[in-house]
Amino acid sequence: MTQPEYDAPDAGPQKPPGTKAARPRDAATLILLRRDAAAPRVLMGRRHRSHSFMPDKWVFPGGRVDAADYRAPAATELRADVEAALVRTIPASRPPSLARALAVAAVRETFEEVGLKLAQPAPTIPAGGPWAPFAVDGVLPDLDALELIARAITPPMRPKRFDARFFTAEADRLQSLTPTGGSGELDEIAWVNLEEAMALDLPTVTRFVLRELSLRLTDPARRPLSLRYARGGRQMETL
After folding, report:
1. 238 pairs with which residues across the strands?
2. CB contact at 8 A, 158 and 6
3. Which of 159, 147, 135 lies closest to 217, judged by CA?
4. Confidence of residue 1 (pLDDT cuts 50, 70, 90)
5. Is the Cα torsion angle 99, 103, 167, 60 positive or negative in sign?
6. Do 213 and 194 contact (CB within 8 A), yes or no?
7. Alpha-carbon gap, residue 31 to 106, rounded angstroms
8. Cys-Cys with 130: which of 11, 14, 51, 68 at CB 3.0–4.6 Å?
């Protein structure tokens, strides 16, 4: 079914008229869910106002897949059902190994942006490489902690486009619950309950994913959703 209210044309900047649509870049986002209070909370951060892309918007940690994500070590691997759902989001022109790289990117970006490690101790830690700062405590990414909740592709009218996969993970799988400033991309970071989160200045797709998370909390067996742009609105499909 179509969802015209998500990423409506007036919801953000548009590409110059007559220019070719940008190719979506593979990206991953991680929603950390904390359940140690009366109401569940999620970790969110506000993008710095100096950013050209979504300034001042509240988002989850995330970003683009890097080449190093394909070969990064991990303490645990994706569950078979999560990997299978991810593979169904991968176009024929992209390698199946992108599924694991997306999961790695979600964990890496969370560490870089808010300083939190979704990790487990690892018996062997590779020396050097791009994951050296993450592994300094003797831990590596805990990919088994990840659930896939949604996939969303930015509409072609936008100047920047992403093919984003949204993961969730329980906060008790983190090495620490206290975020740091990270890379500085987010100028305010906080654990907020879902009602508070919905009142923030959110991108439309973030608002959709928060609603989907609320539904998953009452129905854990709910299947991940895929959203893409179609004539008249976003086409939503079950993965």
Report:
1. 225
2. no
3. 147
4. very low
5. negative
6. yes
7. 9
8. 68
